[in-house]
Amino acid sequence: MKILRTPKITKPEFLSEVIVKIRPEIKVVSLSGKGEPLEAFNHKISKVFTYLADKRVKTGHVLGIFYQDRRKVGVENETWDACVSVDKEIITNDEFKYLNLPEVKVASVILTGSYALIGQALSYLESVTQVNGIKTSWPLTEIYLEEGKEPVTELQYFVKE
């Protein structure tokens, strides 16, 4: 793990330091979506949890994988997966997908606060990696570490080698 610092960029108080690390493999079951995730994400996650409960599978964190930058393609064209981490491979049907997210190097920042701050958090993450000469790429992975009034979300971009 490497902490990235830059004296020229002020870190917002709701963010951790930006780090580069190896994210371990994550097994997930997901439902895909398109458009504004705020309107459908929670519904899809609920469906995934119900599906997994019927299979008696141990679940972990909720993740969102966002495949395009909404700033470039528009929110109506954004494609994403609403995911729940699982402890083993699951045979799924056409609606649900089992994904094995491989071990990968990521640039990461942790946001403590409203999901409305994600845009600012991504701008900070992008600025710090750029100043440090680190090239990143989509998809963006959001790992929801804590839900509730003060959510905690880890935001990750792939690091290009």
Write the layout of secondary structure elements.
Layout: E1 2-4, E2 18-23, E3 26-34, H1 37-55, E4 59-66, H2 70-73, E5 79-86, E6 97-101, E7 104-112, H3 118-131, E8 136-146, E9 152-159
Antiparallel strand pairs: 1-2, 2-7, 3-5, 3-6, 4-5, 4-8, 7-9, 8-9
Tally of helical segments: 3
Helix and strand succession?
A: EEEHEHEEEHEE
Provide the helix percentage: 10-25%
Number of strands: 9
Roughly what fraction of the amino acids lie in strands?
Answer: 35-45%
Distance between the termini: 15 Å
Radius of gyration based on Cα positions: 16 Å
Classification by helices and strands = alpha+beta
- Low-pLDDT stretches: none
* Largest sheet descriptor: 9 strands, antiparallel
Number of domains: 2
Mean pLDDT: 94
- Major sheet: arrangement of strands: 1-2-7-9-8-4-5-3-6
Net shape: globular
